[in-house]
Amino acid sequence: MLRGVLRTKVGRIIVLILILVLGIIGIFIFKKNRDSRWYEKQTVMAQQFLEAGNYEQAIEAYHKALSMKDSDQEYLSVGLAEAYIGINNYDKALEVLRNCYKKTSGNAIKEKIEEVTSRKADYEYQQTISRGDVYYSNEEYDKAIQEYEKAKLIKSKEVISYQNIAQAYIKSGKYEEAKAEVLEGLTITQSEELNQILAVAENYLIKQQYDNIIAEAEEFIFQENYKDGIAKFQEAMRLLPEEDKAYIGLAKVFLTQEKYKTAITLLEGAKEHIASEELDSMLEKAKELQEIENVRNKTLYALYGAVEDLDITKIIKIMNSEFFIKEIAVDIPVYYSPLGEGNISKGYGMILFTDKNLYSGAIDQGIKRGKGIAFQLTESDGEQGYY
Hints:
Elements: H1 2-7, H2 9-52, H3 55-66, H4 73-86, H5 90-104, H6 107-137, H7 141-154, H8 159-171, H9 175-188, H10 192-222, H11 226-239, H12 245-256, H13 260-271, H14 277-308, H15 312-319, H16 322-328, E1 334-336, E2 350-354, E3 357-364, E4 367-376, E5 385-386
Antiparallel strand pairs: 1-2, 2-3, 3-4, 4-5
């Protein structure tokens, strides 16, 4: 039968056409199989590059695969987006996904766009926080705050932004601003960390107020306004009873006023709840001054008694003593009365001019009168006398 067909012209044409059609079909099938294998190879290669972290090569392979006819646009676009994310190019990743969504409107692509958008926000947030941390570590607190504020705009409900801003304000000594930042954060999210920072900021504010009161007290004392100065020191003690500065300042005032026992009582009370080397040193000084005052009074009592008894030998011994010369005579003129303040014009006390001159008795219009005796202790003539 075939031979019969081939003998005719029409038959031969039909056979040639069939051969041509079959050839074309064969070529088409071959090309399609070849393209399919190449596409599969590119797709597998792209996935392998992506998994190995070779993102640049993965991007190139995905682009080649996407350029092929009948490629899986959604699958390849997702892979390409992940490759771009690998080099932190979130904008390019979103561009790839959005272009694909315009073509396919697939839900998977839509969800991927939402996911990448969220991941982009996370990345930019962390990058901004990191820049702020660098400024913070370099003590560039204003610049750090600017970066943390940018991070807060990206993710307003993240507590770390509020924490870092508040801490930077504290480092800058801006305690009111730190407190305000924490309170803003607490209106958005409750956080134990924020509450702890709030406590720190409030403590600094109280300490700042304390230091201001101390400064006011010291200014009053400098102006010799002791009443208001003492009141300010006491106010500071009530504000921060665990701080030693107010106790030390008030103790210095009492020492200046020679109220040594009062100073000792104050400092010993403070030591019961404050551990402070400066308090210890001030208390030791107050006790030393009190001891000197005790010896001073004892010496002056003895001197007064010797004068009353006209005991010249005892008078000379007392006035030549090292303690009298160093602790009493240096304060000339010294007024002393065993009866209280007294009135020297009525002869109730004595005046010690130097370690070598003593007068005891009454003064009437600048003239020595009445009972009294004066000693001139000199070595110029080798004699000592009295009248």
